[in-house]
Predict the structure.
Amino acid sequence: MTLVLIVIAVWLMAWWLNTKLAAKPKSRLISFLVPAIFGLTLLILWEGIVRGLEVRAVLLPPPSAIVVAFYTKMPILWVDFVQTFIKGALSGYFIGCGAAFLTAIAVDRSPFLQKGLLPVGNFVAALPIIGMAPILVMWFGFDWHSKAAVVVVMVFFPMLVNSVQGLQSSEAMQRDLLRTYAAGYWRSLLKLRLPAAMPFIFNGLKICTTLALIGAIVAEFFGSPIKGMGFRISTEVGRLALDMVWAEITVAALAGSAFYGSVVLLERAVTFWHPSQRG
């Protein structure tokens, strides 16, 4: 119990320090320190409560046990990362988002597709992935190809809806001006509509980063070779090895955050002119 009280005291001191830092003028250092201190104190609180109250590791392992599992099982974690994230999530992400963007251009040019495909897209997007994943696993096999297919289904329609909305976001006066310059559809697309659509397109890309990793992991629960994050999580839960489960969750969180952050950095480089990217 003494350990718990000490940890709570550390938490209160860190809370007071973060309050003082947050009140200071905004800077890169402050923007880094506040979440870093908050996250570190959360881990300290977690460690102290688990050890102070003697919580069993099969219910909630302490962060130190997760770090040990992360370090000792690094080769296994790397194989799972490659199988799930690089092969399943990334391949499905690029295929699904690329196909959605090309389809959005076709939808933008065709009123028939706009009225016929988008309602169907909304219906398919509402289908539960827990129901689609087993079907796609049976269609495409138990290797990473079926996981990529699940990711394609998950990211296609969110990306399609955002891309179509972006391509239609330019103002009528701007389009009329280009027509007075005798600009055809493709020149208008490259000079006006595509640049105006970039914030919407990147919004879809950012949404799909999280959907891709979730879809790949969930799909592995329904059939996978003896590797992959989803396979490892389901297997280690059955063995009550919760430290390994949390290590896999940590890898997934780090990979998802890095993936999302890379898309944000690319968005800042491409849409630096947009008001949302100005300092």
